[in-house]
Amino acid sequence: MSEHTRKLALAAVIVASATAISRLTGLGREVITAAVYGVDPDYNTFVSVSVIPQLVQQLFADAAISAAFVPVFTALLTKGERERAYRLAGNLLGLIVVVVGLTVVVLALAARPLTQWMYPELTQTAAGADLAADLLRILVPTILFLSLAGAISGVLYSFERFTMPAVVSIVWNLTIIAAIVAFQGSIGVDAIAWGMLVGTVLEVAMLAGAARHRGRWLWPRFGLGDPLLRRVLLLMVPITITLGILNFNSLIATWFAQFVSDRAAAEIGYAFRLYQLPQGIFAVTIGTVLFPSLSRFAAQRDEGRFRDTVSLGVRQMVFVSLPFVAWFAVMPEAFVELVYQRGNFDAAATTEVAGALAFFSVGLAFANANIMLNRSFQSMQRPWLPLYVAVGNLIVNFVLCWLLYEPLGVRGLTLSMAAVSAVNFFALFVLLRRQVGRVDGRRMATAAGGALLCALVLSAVSYGVWRALEDVAARGFWGLLAAVVAAVAAGAAAYLLLAKALRLEELSVVRQVFRRRGRGRRESGGGEASPPPPDLPPASG
Asked: Is the pTM here over 0.90, yes or no?
């Protein structure tokens, strides 16, 4: 492995480590939230209302901005036009301050009628309407700060500096935990909202400091006539609409949830946090690290390396996702009880959340692979194509939620979202193949089939161990922890041993990255990875 490729592998390890810590602190945040609030109707209102700013955030925040901005900013750096690149970044910040700032003001002023219109079941009483409006007013400023954070993160990504964007979410989680512990007794569920707001402010400050270490501060400029800014905006529009539609799917599920019960949105939220844990650690890491390389390959019109990188990313995502699909499907109650069931989160809530998690898990591998496919279109600067798929998915999701929410309740809503992930994957794959030719589909299918076989064996082993240790699990937290760890470890061992016996390439790739973790840290002095060369061998993912 070359020095540059080794450093790219180190970047993946650093991001994976920081992201893992972020997910663990996020999980800690959810543990505390569950113990304090459970599935209380007030917390359910918070979960429902928070979907509104989250939807708007996706129109302006890091995913859309970075996806549109990174290719243009990187192209300027490649040409040696650093000053022009920083001027573009400043103009983007200025546009965000104006447009997003006005949006925040409008949402804050319209908070009460907006929440009453969207959630009639939750705002029937004056107290319910007041709570929903107050929560929305606290949360909407986070849209502006996250949008600024997205632009600054784009600069860092262009320099292939991934650590700080991964680290800031750790601080965000810890800030919310501190707010809940300190203030939940006096201001109730508002404590979470204030913690989120303060956390986003700290996030922007930390990212700005990291960008400063690249040689200069980033300040808002107001050159709104910049032709390159218009280019970024043109790229942002389809990405923004696509992400907005994807998050509108969550809004659809939350909207239907109010007709299931006054706890349903909270139950879906808890299930989603567990579902998202492996997604954040593995899929986001792979997509983030490979995106700049995909952008370079697309700019160089190197379709061979582009296709190889897409194939590698998708295969790795499927390989690391399927074990979690298996665990969440065969023993969801174990994970929910271990993580959440304490304080105000009771056994009845565990049953409901476990059912939601099991149905959610059906789409996990597809959802993770979709990250890579979306990044592929963004790197080619053809973001309009996923938009067509997203529109179709919106219709599919609404119809499925409408058909399933009455007979299956919360489980029906999460099953609908899982089905949408699968539909999205196959549609994007077909579109990508039309753009770049064959995308190693047979190799992907073969790898997925091998990993699926390993996952089936994992399911049988983990479930058998779990059932054998049920009496141990019933003895309290430590007994439950021991039983879950034993079941997971036995299943993981079976998965890895069978993958080795089948000679699955994805296992060797993962082992290559993590085997170099200690050596890479020593040789790099614990810092961030240097920019990689313009090529990326398949084994470096």
From this structure: no
